[in-house]
Known about the structure:
The structure holds three protein chains of three kinds. Chain A is an alpha/beta fold. Chain A is built from 21 helices and 28 strands. In chain A, helix 1 crosses helix 2 (69-85), helix 8 packs across helix 9 and helix 12 packs across helix 13. Chain A is globular. Chain B is mainly alpha-helical. Chain B has one domain (4-231). Chain B contains 13 helices and two strands. Chain B has helices at residues 4-35, 42-63, 66-93, 101-123, 148-170, 172-182, 184-189, 194-220, 226-229, 233-240, 245-265, 267-270, 278-289; strands at 139-141, 144-146. Chain B has a two-stranded antiparallel ribbon with strand order 1-2. Chain C is α/β, with parallel strands linked by helices. Chain C is globular and about 60 Å long. The chains are: A alpha/beta, B mainly alpha, C alpha/beta.
Amino acid sequence: MPAVTEEARLPDLSVRGAASDARAAPRDQATGSESDDTFPKVLLRRAKGHASDPAVREKEFGIWQSYSWSEVAEEAELLACGLASLGLERGDRVALLGANRPQFYWATYAIQSVGAIPVPIYQDSIAEEAVHILDHSGASFVLAEDQEQIDKVLSVRDHLPRLSGLIFKDPRGLRSYAEPGLRSMEEVRALGIAKRAADPSFFARAVAEGSGGDVAIICYTSGTTGKPKGVVLTFDNLIATASTMAAFEGLTGSDSVLAYLPMAWIGDHFFSYAQSALVGFPVNCPESGATLMTDLREVGPTYFFAPPRIFESILTDVTIRMENAGWIKRRLFAFFMAVARSTGVRLLEGRPVSAGQRLLYGIGRLVVYAPLLNTLGLRRLRVAYTAGEALGPEIFDFYRSLGVNLKQVYGQTESSVYVCVHANDDVRSDTVGRPAPGVEVRFSEQGELLYRSPGVFKEYYRTEDATGDAKDEGGWVRSGDAGIVTDDGHIKIIDRAKDVGRLLSGSLFAPKYIENKLKFFPSIKEAVAFGDGRQNVCAFINIELEAVGNWAERRGISFTSYADLAGRMEVYDLVSGQIEEANRSLARELQLAGAQIHRFLILPKELDADDGELTRTRKVRRRVIAERYGALIEAMYGDDDSVDFETRATFEDGRVGIVRAHVPIRQARTFAPEPVR
Amino acid sequence: MPTPFFVLEVALSGLLAGLLYSLVALGFVLIYKASGVFNFAQGALVLLAALVFVRATEIFDAMGPATVGFWAALLATMAVMVLVAAAIERFLLRPLVNQPPITLFMATIGLTFLIEGISQMIWGSRVYTLDLGIPDEPWIIHGLYIGKIDLFAAAVAIAMVIALAVFFQFTRIGRALRAVSDDHQAALSIGIPLNFIWVVVWSLAGMAALFAGLVWGAKLGVQFSISVVALKALPVLILGGFTSIPGVIVGGILIGVSEKLAEVFVGPVVGGAIESWFAYVLALAVLLVRPQGLFGEKIIERV
Amino acid sequence: MTPASAAAHAAPATGTILKLDDVSLSFGGIKAVQGVTFDIRPSEIRAIIGPNGAGKSSVLNIINGFYRPQRGTITFKGRARSYMSPYEAARGGVARTFQNIALFKGMTTLDNILSGRLLKVRSSVFEQALQVGRAVREELDQRQHVERILDFLEIEHIRKTPVGQLPYGLQKRVELGRALAMEPDLLLLDEPMAGMNLEEKEDMCRFILDVREEFGAAIALIEHDIGVVMDLSDRIAVLEYGRLIADGAPEQVRNDPAVIAAYLGAKR
Lengths: 677, 303, 268
């Protein structure tokens, strides 16, 4: 199987035809003239036409500070001039390493203004991960948030001969550093002031030189295998997709977003930068990662993207809070949630609802839904997206029944985010919707989803053969995902194309599909299914410590650690029941009924990105797991009902140690295939 | 069967009496808040304040016109209470710094005997009358009888509570008091002069004692039983919470009203004299359900 | 970047901010501190190490005014005295944290840190009570100051949380925040990293270095993690049985035979 990029499934939308057709894409009314083919140009127009509208807000020292479009343009100009006077030239790459701060969005404009290319890097990557991207992209400058990030780069600077400048935003702890080329953003800005004084038209000239075919950004994708690859996207790619989707969702300048997902992820660049610029809505930067939920409540965004785990954790939070609430509150909540379940989704989708139900829902909105959404910060939401791993149908319906317009998107970095998306009146929790406007989708004989759109990336940076593998001359891109089309034209992604295998019986085995079914249970955090080329399917389970711990406490089951809890027979009973439920639902899907789970075990250790078992985006690394836990897998396919095992683990405090455990193995009940309806 | 009107009247008199309890309880709360100590000597302070005031009135009355005498006596008594507070700080609290609360509690018991003993030496054990110049006859509003002295007591209690609440919430000393009550060492380390704070707190408790002493003294005469009556504050504290100033008001009113009503409704059934024990039973019931009181801070600590 | 290289960058200023001269302290028959003489320079990180019961905390408590030494002089900011009361110490710019965390448990993080600014209040009791005049402006300034500290210590998310509910590592940070709110010239840290995990220790090291850099305060710290002490400090004083047995730069102390025998030897 050729290397196809692995990336969170993002919404990907493209317009019919290749990148060159991008300009034919519908533009949002606010976007304006044809010549706005780069983001710096869009910014300059905004700074003229909507000078005092808020462009970005940031919570600092406990207060929300707001910056207008003209202020952003001013800052971008000064930074651009400063960077230019430090020697930044057209086509140079500049790495960005930090959290979502306004300064980094300004810097993105600044870098693009002078024709250089921003390369955002995940701020939590370890030095070795960062060095690959810095080295591969050949970045000549790094813009880092603080001492932590600067230290990270300095620790590998010897390997980065092309790196000439390190610029930091927060001077704390850095004042006494004497590294060559190290300076603060303030200093760069001061250089910019001098440069502008000497050459007042520099910025305008530089911006005018840019055009839509230029490279806008290089996003390195995390990848479950191999080194990350740099996806090169042009302004045409992003502008076409961003404006088409803005029109599709009816975004306007009065919308707002919370910028909290990593800047290195294309989604943040798309929602918080590209669409913000094109449509003109403000971007809100949270105070810190830890204050996210408070900030969400204060901002009350109307347009929101979150990976499933965020929606899950919000729901878990609500559930726990309700369990601890007084009985009146609990009863009220239970009653109106039942009303919401029966009525909410129908109302949201404009389907007929009886007057009585409507009235009840109205009361529910008054006493439960609205206050609840308000505390969660979701009250103003008009469009909420989720993507990546699948979201459980109950969770999906929970939000929709409360009136939150939650939708799935499917896409990749390579597609400028969108491939498929739910339309407002056509949402099903088990699909990713239909191809987004402008995107063509077809399937290969192996079931792999292929797409073509104006958002399709230009190339993988300095990796031509990979580009050739992923994209053919006709502009069709291999998504790497296996999918099927449902009767009503929705697309359902079942797994990674390369992970889909067959049991000895010839039955289709889609591990992720099975795992996702398991992960819908709140007590199951991770699952890894095995079965390709085997007699039947077996699975590893990771329990969700918080949920199961809570459950155990309520039952008076005491435990000392994760491993202890994981080995409890009571927990096995709990999980066993859930696996049977998953099997029952698998039995209803003809193609997959043969792949029910026969035996399982609960891992004595949580799968951890620090141990290389998960990617940074929390996807399982099958190969690593198969290697490390080989003995456990074989035991599951053996006859014993338990196995002794030890493995290396990284503890919370960073120490590395050995986990030893006696792991029970359980048989699960399976069901005869039972066709739907 | 009592008429609704009668019930209202009983409730009202209970309310006013309850505020009087609040006034006494306030002294306890202040000291408890600032030092975590239950000040057993608060009753003795009430007695002392009343006696000093009586003596001061005699002295000043002999010197000039009555109205001037009243105010002069009030100021003089306040000054004495501050001096007493300073003495308590110097000779009792300072040597016992960093000792467990139980030690300090024992010390306040000792203090009670000391104050009562000295008072007896100076004043003997006779009953003094205390005249605040408030006429004894009640106001009658729409047929409701309201004792003027009760009204005066209520006004004083409410005014003191408001003043103290503002003081605690907004002023530096008030904030320092909260800090001191939480952790002595930490309070010292941020530059809070502990000794001064204690003098302030005990002085404030002394003021509360003074007002309580004035009102009780005017109603019942100044006698040694006052210091026992002060124990009525205990159920008020349990009800309102040892650390809450607003709780003291609510607790006082609840106790006052409920014991008066109980006297009327339940009294005949059990043979009367319910007022002497009803408050304690009520407090016990509250302790069982809500040990921190209605307004007390829940003790939350991570283990 | 290791803490050591950062420490090497910031050369401490010369002169002394505090000097203990032949200071002795005993409780009953126990001699906690015996004739200790040592000084602290402005903006330096000064570690005090030694086995348990060597008198380290007693030295901090003398500096901070909790203990009154029986002998010796304390010279703080040029003024010699035999005893400095806690109030004087706090007024003069000595702030501290405690080995066992002494926070106002019922208050929020914000109020705890705000309490460190009690001495900075200038308005009168009446202005404060009525919230008029200087008091209003002051209130805002104080809050702003505290917000900067919250940001500095990265504890914005627990702003409104009662500190009693916080995990240990965060409580230590709040305690440091309260000390910083006093704008100290001399910061005494009694085992700032005790009971912390590796990550929390690293954070605390960074904060200590940053405190010196951003606030310019001299820091005297007691710490058992010798690795941390060697990396962090400019000078180290070693106590044993209440006596000073060595004093000097980390290198010097590390190689001192008396220290190896008494302290490091005792550990083995």
